[in-house]
Amino acid sequence: MATFTLNGDNVTVEAEPNAPLLWVVREHLGLTGTKFGCGAGQCGACTVHVDGASTYACLTPVSAVEGRQVTTIEGLSEDGTHPLQQAWIDEEVPQCGYCQPGQIMRAADLLANNPQPNREEIVTHMSTNICRCGTYTRIVRAIERAAEEAGNEA
Amino acid sequence: MKRNDTLTGQPMTGMSAASREAIASSGGSKASNESSGASGGLATRRDFIQGVGVTLTVGATGVIGACSMPSGDSDDPGAPASGPAANDAVTPNAWVSIGADDTITIQFGATEMGQGSMTSVPLVLAEEMDADWDNVRVETVSRHDPTYGNPMAFGYYGFPIMYTAGSAALRGYFNAMRQAGAQARRFLLDAAATQLGVPVEELSTQPSRVVHAASGQTLSYGQIAAAAEVPGSLPEVPESEYKPRSEYRYLGTDVPRIDVPAKVDGSAEYGIDVQIPGMVYASVLRAPVEGEEPMQVDDSAARAIPGVTDVVTLPYGVAVVGETVEGTIWGKNALQVTWSENSRFRDTDQARDLDEYEARARDLDFSTGNPLWQDVGDIDPAFRSADRVIEAVFRSEPAYHAQMEPLSATASVSADGLSAEVWVSTQTQSLTAMAAADLLETDVDRITVHAMYIGGGYGRRAEYRQKDVEDALLLSRELGRPVKVIWSREDDVRDGIFRPLAAQYLRAALDADGQVTALHQRVATPSVLSFMNEPRWGLSRNRDGISMNGAQTTRYSIPNIRAEHVMVDRCSRLAAWRGVATSYTRFANESLIDEIAHTVGSDPLQFRLDLTRDDPAAQSVLEEVAQMADWSQPREGTSLGVALSDYGGASVSAGIAEVSVNQETGVITVHRYWMAIDAGFIVSPRNTEAQMEGNIVYGISSALKERISVNAGSVDQSNFHDYPVMRINEMPEIQTRALPSDSPPSGVGELGLATTGPAIANAVFAATGVRLRELPMTPERVLAALQEASA
Fold first, then answer.
1. Contacts of A10 in chain B (CB under 8 A)
2. Is a pLDDT exceeding 50 seen at residue B384?
3. Is the link from the previous residue into B146 a cis peptide, with omega within 30 of 0?
4. A17-41 average pLDDT score
5. Three-state DSSP class for residue B485
6. How many CB pairs under 8 A join A and B?
7. Longest Cα–Cα distance in chain A
8. What integer best gives the mean pLDDT of chain A?
9. Contact call for B7 and A137, based on CB within 8 A
10. Is the confidence metric ipTM above 0.90 for this complex?
């Protein structure tokens, strides 16, 4: 049994303490936007936020998020309009799309801590996440666009 | 051998029987929601969502119901007074249905794996029909039905199959979509003429609307459909009556891909995301060596793990079944299995096997009796009278698809075992259904295949017998309930199906003027088709269109050409891979062309321009890419290499790589990559650009570092740490351009990938004077080649 906050809601889950957060979120709770890619923290497809920080859900036992705030792609924004999600649409980033929730969660963590990253900072931060379709050029453009638009509003 | 997957830690014990029952009885709902007022939110949002295959309404985020809504608004002043709507929807042909509510539903016979066909293919129909794209709903067909087969996938079975591969979706469906759209428009015009009582010649269309300009009357397509007589079969519309390109509203513009919004908010449903009421999970421990089977199974530890409900021995492995994914994985890792040790693959030794392939490729007297892959003129006299012969051997190791979504399938087999529903990311509804019918010894019409979004295909999901589907079907039949099987990444690699190991011997004959008079390419590689699709292989007359794809030389004016398939025994499981086989066939061919150019003292670009003198499209892409890269501009510290590659006969691409080589480490860095293509008429410019970028990334990644090795019957790699693929911090700058063309669309999904390997190798030669002839071009191989050259 584990109790934590998921996308703003308190949840209690009947799961073994060592059950990976990935499977708890996806299969126990049905939020399948968080993807299984490697199970080893090598691809970033399962990236969620725990207390705001990018975390590999596949390597995180559910007991480790007891009492903490977990955010998945479904909770990044109310209606899919986070500036990064909008930039992802505007730049038409996804191809197969499977890695993209993880990419967006990883990028959201970057912009939260560094609102105006340069290209080098972007690719260094995002190098944890694999996209096999090769959308990397667009990922960089979308992050730059989201940062720029946020800068314009500030 | 015991295979522990890196998915999870060890389980904690002590979960009560009561809590396990609660999980079982609550199906997918395992959360209690403590925040007041939020019930019905989190815990139930996705409970019991039944994936129905991918269905999307354009311009909306949700999926609407079937076309049985009341007829639409009637506030159109031009609309005639009419009685109550007779139809909820009208279906002029198999492809399109027009709802009284103005919704237009288009059937999609391919599958969406990131290539964008789910937008571009129905868009062709909508264009020809003059439909308002904002009111279009796309439905992926969820069964095998030749009606929706790709016309280009015709001939192997006697009917077209639904098969999304070979960059053939838009290309193959293009005319069928135009015909279906033109037919629907013609039907609407005729019906409107009757309803308005005016001659059809006086009518025209605007998006989803028929207009009678003389009277100012208009009817929406939905209004017409509501009152129209339901047609029988409609006559073909002659191609001369198709909409001219100058009148296109959508094709050739950047219409947003309809799958993108769901892919950024997490709601897109892939095969692995399916949840079915009453389903259980399964993880399968598979034989460490192909062809072997479990002899003794000790499952006592596995069965003791909370959540594990069953352990089922399969012909090729042992499945742990349970109520949670993690329980089945823990259970799988706790199995103790003794395997048979009788597989011929235990003798594999990749280095030795490749040497054997090479010996066969080099031995001109050795033939496996296959029909020649390509035979133009007569190479023998040309080689006998040659002034010079240039020859080389090229080697390439197996490559893995590394699609981001590991294999997963969900199946529900009926109690009598003769019907089944399957939910899976598949590149082919037809083959999935046909193979399922074979397995269950039933009729293909009794198999439903919900074709979900695909988390990467690249050929991984196009084979006849899809092992994830087989797992799910066998287990569901055995257990009498729906089963979802999820492969670990380790399963996906170790039980992967790969681009084959290959050794190629190439030689070229030159006359005294340095002109190429003959080209001979001998490809020693196993038959991929006989492994990945036995029924199709049986009908292929020993011509393997997968293994030999791209081995033909079609763009160069060389009078005598021979390409041969030296068929050798396979050493691994096999599959088509992105670009099919062009990544190794064109690597060899384009590297040799470069060698010839340098040998005769010609600029490699100019040499190719001379050789393509009879092929304006090939010349155009070469000239274009040379201009983009500023080919003749001297560089400091970097060098350029060029390559040309055909794909599928009609599309052609040219690529230029700018590289540097670290002489100390052997690391090749690709700084920039330029590519120009001619792929016929470009339906979706922005998506075409994305496909070109993807091909470049996939191609460079594989050319520089991707290798699978199979030794003693086992795959040595297991995850991304030992099968690294390109990451974002390794990206070159990329510039692409698609040339305008009036030809029909000819495919971009795999175009240009094959230029990357040879362009890089050719650039490395320009930088170092050393020729790299083995894929991948790892730092170790680069260093070895540099040392050999300096010795």
1. 33-35
2. yes
3. no
4. 98
5. strand
6. 259
7. 47
8. 97
9. no
10. yes
